[in-house]
């Protein structure tokens, strides 16, 4: 037991040493990030393939921050499980006042973490909205160029491989987002298992405040700038729209409107060349 305490204390010291060092080097870190952004802008002017790397950055950073939020919600759920069953004081265990204090601390931490998720939604929501919108539009555009604009009967499979890549990226973000929201709401099931009638007045008040707090933050979950929620339901919607769009294009391949659009684009390309 003493060995475990030493390891725990050492890990705490290591954690705070890293945090303090990061705070000290914050100025240089911000300068580095601004330099990367400026460099990316200059590189974009010369390298048209660079946005592909940018997509990877969006994916990696989104998954990183969402995973961190999810694991912190898991830790709060674990702390709640450590409380006495029913939040009732037992002989030789926590007192009613200690239980009330712990419930309040978990509630405040949950509120703070929910606020961080809201800030992440405000920051990354518009970025992912644009990414999803243009990725979907790009898939339809490539389908048009392959099936209608291209006169050759031989089609390349390379664009369809990119479809799978984009679908994997979007599904990964939606899956991890759904996981975070699930862990965030997990504590609701714990609150509903508690019998309020058997608690003290102060603990009852904390539970009621907790439930009200969750209902307040629930509409502010991870959204695409308020247009729609990021969850696994969106995956099916995107796939249905994509399949519908591709099948519609294939069916209208010989439609006069498609032929007119095809000829207009070819004439414009000839004029440009």
UniProtKB/TrEMBL annotation:
<feature type="transmembrane region" description="Helical">
    <location>
        <begin position="44"/>
        <end position="65"/>
    </location>
</feature>
<feature type="transmembrane region" description="Helical">
    <location>
        <begin position="116"/>
        <end position="140"/>
    </location>
</feature>
<protein>
    <recommendedName>
        <fullName>Gustatory receptor</fullName>
    </recommendedName>
</protein>
<keyword id="KW-0472">Membrane</keyword>
<keyword id="KW-0812">Transmembrane</keyword>
<keyword id="KW-1003">Cell membrane</keyword>
<dbReference type="GO" id="GO:0005886">
    <property type="term" value="C:plasma membrane"/>
</dbReference>
<keyword id="KW-1133">Transmembrane helix</keyword>
<dbReference type="Pfam" id="PF08395">
    <property type="entry name" value="7tm_7"/>
</dbReference>
<dbReference type="GO" id="GO:0050909">
    <property type="term" value="P:sensory perception of taste"/>
</dbReference>
<feature type="transmembrane region" description="Helical">
    <location>
        <begin position="6"/>
        <end position="24"/>
    </location>
</feature>
<dbReference type="InterPro" id="IPR013604">
    <property type="entry name" value="7TM_chemorcpt"/>
</dbReference>
<feature type="transmembrane region" description="Helical">
    <location>
        <begin position="234"/>
        <end position="252"/>
    </location>
</feature>
<feature type="transmembrane region" description="Helical">
    <location>
        <begin position="160"/>
        <end position="181"/>
    </location>
</feature>
């Amino acid at each position: 037991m003493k060995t475990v305490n030493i390891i725990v204390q050492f890990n705490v010291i290591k954690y705070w040493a890293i945090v303090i060092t990061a705070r000290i080097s914050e100025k240089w870190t911000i300068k580095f990030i601004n330099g990367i952004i400026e460099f990316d802008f200059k590189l974009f002017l010369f390298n048209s393939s660079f946005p592909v790397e940018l997509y990877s950055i969006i994916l990696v950073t989104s998954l990183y921050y969402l995973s961190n939020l999810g694991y912190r919600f898991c830790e709060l759920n674990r702390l709640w499980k450590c409380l006495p069953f029913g939040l009732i004081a037992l002989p030789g265990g926590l007192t009613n006042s200690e239980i009330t204090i712990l419930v309040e601390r978990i509630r405040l931490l949950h509120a703070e973490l929910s606020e961080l998720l809201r800030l992440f939604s405000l920051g990354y929501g518009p970025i992912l909205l644009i990414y999803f919108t243009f990725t979907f539009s790009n898939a339809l555009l490539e389908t048009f160029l392959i099936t209608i604009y291209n006169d050759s009967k031989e089609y390349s499979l390379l664009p369809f491989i990119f479809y799978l890549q984009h679908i994997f990226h979007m599904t990964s973000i939606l899956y991890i987002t759904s996981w975070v929201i699930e862990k965030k709401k997990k504590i609701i099931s714990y609150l509903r298992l508690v019998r309020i009638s058997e608690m003290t007045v102060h603990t009852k008040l904390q539970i009621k405040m907790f439930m009200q707090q969750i209902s307040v933050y629930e509409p502010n979950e991870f959204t695409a700038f308020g247009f729609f929620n990021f969850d696994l339901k969106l995956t099916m919607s995107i796939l249905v729209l994509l399949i519908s769009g591709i099948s519609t294009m294939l069916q209208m391949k010989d439609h006069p409107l498609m032929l007119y659009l095809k000829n207009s684009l070819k004439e414009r390309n000839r004029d440009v060349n």
